[in-house]
Amino acid sequence: MEELTYTTVGRTELVDVTSAVAESIAGKPGSAVLVYVPHTTAAVTINEKIDAVLVADLERAFEQVVGDDWRFEHDDIDGPNGPSHGRASVIGANVVIPLRDGEMALGRYQAIFLCEFDGPKHRSVYVSVLA
Amino acid sequence: MEELTYTTVGRTELVDVTSAVAESIAGKPGSAVLVYVPHTTAAVTINEKIDAVLVADLERAFEQVVGDDWRFEHDDIDGPNGPSHGRASVIGANVVIPLRDGEMALGRYQAIFLCEFDGPKHRSVYVSVLA
Amino acid sequence: MEELTYTTVGRTELVDVTSAVAESIAGKPGSAVLVYVPHTTAAVTINEKIDAVLVADLERAFEQVVGDDWRFEHDDIDGPNGPSHGRASVIGANVVIPLRDGEMALGRYQAIFLCEFDGPKHRSVYVSVLA
Questions:
Q1: Which residue in chain C is spatially nearest to A93 when comparing CA positions?
Q2: B80, C35, C36, C74: which could form a disulfide with C126 (CB 3.0–4.6 Å)?
């Protein structure tokens, strides 16, 4: 298992981790790659990397899927970040991508994004090759 | 890794791919099956296959989880399909199903659905057996 | 593949299954754990286990992500539970967690939750170690 680390800047921020994931698995035999986020207010998803405008669209959309104005009572050392926890579960803590000829079989427009929902924070992304 | 191909008809459309996935892995030893969609406006999910009315319900619900009337600025060769990208990330690009005695351990009512969110289009579904 | 069983009490209820999953895989070599729910109105997610108030927040949030007042026409032996089906797909039927030194590499605050969306019911959770 490899660990990648990031420091996020925005409250909600999609960070393209595709190249770092690809480098961390280079040369390792297997049939799939597990990308996992060990946090409860961050997630990982796959979407299009080409258009920066779309990335901003997705950041806004993920904030609207679980609204800041909904009823949340959670309030801890990180503040009242209930919506951040909700978004993390809706998007999910892991993706699994098949390997083909030793490389991730990503679609032409696909990238892997760490999804920060409660930044800025230091974050880890775990990468494992499955046999 | 096997590749299944589909041509979708509707803008939003759930396509039952369960039988094709089962056929593509028949006789292959392993502990789980990865079903992966290499697109950014399509996804894969597991739900009930019995009631066609429910499938239509789910298509409408997935459109409402990320609304067409939200603010999206993305507009490329495929048109202003930001909501389609958002739905793809909320539902997710992969499912992993355990194998038991060589067959997918699906629940009695479960089926695997390719989720088209920007059709009609030609789509691929990748299937890999994990050890 | 191990099978854990639960009886849920609430209509929507998050049940912490982390310890039971950990026990079921103890001593088994591999690189990741697949946790899978063979139902169409239940799901599995990872979130914070520390604050009971947050768990209640998440239960309410997941009910709002797919609203009870949306248009659903499905009505079978379980009643008109279309929203329960929608929530199951949004949260998802599986999570995959990497193994590190024989134990799940969960983050400090992470727990694995069975998500009941149509209880009370008897539910199963499948657990498989991937090589």
A1: C46
A2: C36
Residues of chain A contacting C32 with CB distance shorter than 8 Å: 34, 128, 130
B72: pLDDT confidence band, cut at 50, 70 and 90? Answer: very high
ipTM, interface predicted TM-score of the complex = 0.97
B39 vs B61: CA distance, rounded Å: 21
Q: Which two tokens stand for residue B119?
A: 């059709």
Rounded Cα distance, B54 and B48, in Å: 8
Whether residue B76 is predicted with pLDDT greater than 90 in this model: the reply is no
Measure CA C121 to chain center: 13
Residue B53: list chain C partners with CB under 8 A: 73-74
Task: Answer yes or no: do A94 and C92 touch at CB < 8 A.
Answer: no
Residues of C in contact with B95 (CB under 8 A): 92-94
Alpha-carbon distance B42 to B96, whole Å? 17
Cβ-count burial of B121 within 10 angstroms (0-12 exposed, 13-18 middle, 19+ buried)? middle
End-to-end CA distance of chain B: 13
Positive or negative, the Cα torsion across B75, A60, B91, C81? negative
pLDDT digits (tens, 9 = 90+) for A79-128: 899 999 999 999 999 999 999 999 999 999 999 999 999 999 999 999 99
Non-local CB neighbours of C67 within 8 Å, separated by 6+ positions: B64, C83
Residue with tokens 């289009």: B121
Quick one: chain C helix, strand, coil %, rounded to 5? 25, 35, 40
Nearest alpha carbon to residue C116 among C46, C43, C53:
C43
Q: What is the DSSP string of C25-89?
A: HTT---SEEEEE---SSEEEEEEE-S-HHHHHHHHHHHHHHS-TTS-----BTTBS-HHHHHHHH
Enumerate neighbours of A (3 or more CB pairs within 8 A). B, C
pLDDT of residue B25: 97
Per-residue CA distances from B86 to A39, B82, B112, C61, C85 (Å): 22, 6, 20, 18, 19
From CA B98, how far away is CA B129, in angstroms rounded?
A: 10
Beta-bridge partners for C43 = C115
Main-chain dihedrals φ then ψ at residue C110, nearest 5 degrees: -85, 140
Note the pLDDT of residue A123. Answer: 98
Is B40's CB within 8 Å of A91's CB?
no
**DSSP structure class, residue A120:** S
